[in-house]
Amino acid sequence: MLPIKRAVIYSLLTRYFLVATGLVSSLVFAQLLTSEEIGPFQLITAGTLVVLALTLAGHLYDNRNQLPIWIATHYYFVVVNGYAVRGIVKTLQGRVRVTWNGARPGQEQR
User: Fold this and answer.
1) Could you please report the per-residue DSSP string of 40-76?
2) What pLDDT, on a 0 to 100 scale, did the predictor assign at position 53?
3) Which of 60, 41, 48, 53 is nearest to 21 (CA)?
4) 10-residue block means of pLDDT along the chain (110 residues)?
5) What's this model's pTM, rounded to 2 decimal places?
6) Which residues contact 41 (CB under 8 A, 6 or more apart)?
7) Is-contact 79 3, C-beta < 8 A?
8) Given phi > 0 = left and psi -120 to 50 = alpha, else beta, which region is 61?
9) CA distance between the termini of the chain
10) What angle do CA 75, 39, 48 make, to 5 degrees?
11) In whole angstroms, how large is the CA radius of gyration of the chain?
């Protein structure tokens, strides 16, 4: 693998991995600080739980094409980041699949 590809893959991995771990770690650490009865951390815990509850509601919804906007926003935020992490892990494992061809008719592929 070329060094530039490796750098791009690692930057994508850290970016998307940090979003997922940030959500979970903010819940865990805010919960720990909530036991000290510090107000802002109680709000962070409540907000994180609301986002995760709306994500779960979107996952359990029968027809995801008809999700209300207040559920769909949170659901797709978490789902897109989850699939991005999954794709980056597959890329690091060498399981790459081209999903489109950018060559136009009459032009050769490079």
Assistant:
1) HHHHHHHHHHHHHHHHHHHHH-S-GGG--HHHHHHHH
2) 86
3) 48
4) 64 68 73 70 78 84 83 84 82 78 63
5) 0.50
6) 29, 30, 33, 34
7) no
8) beta
9) 18
10) 10
11) 19
Residue ranges per structural domain of the chain: 3-92
CB atoms within 10 A of CB 61: 15
CA atoms within a 13 Å half-sphere pointing along the CA-CB vector of 42: 6
CA distances from 45 to 21, 35, 42, 53 (A): 15, 11, 5, 12
Burial (CB count <10 Å: 0-12, 13-18, 19+), residue 11: exposed
Region class of 106: left (phi > 0), else alpha (psi between -120 and 50), else beta: left
Entry field: residues in the chain = 110
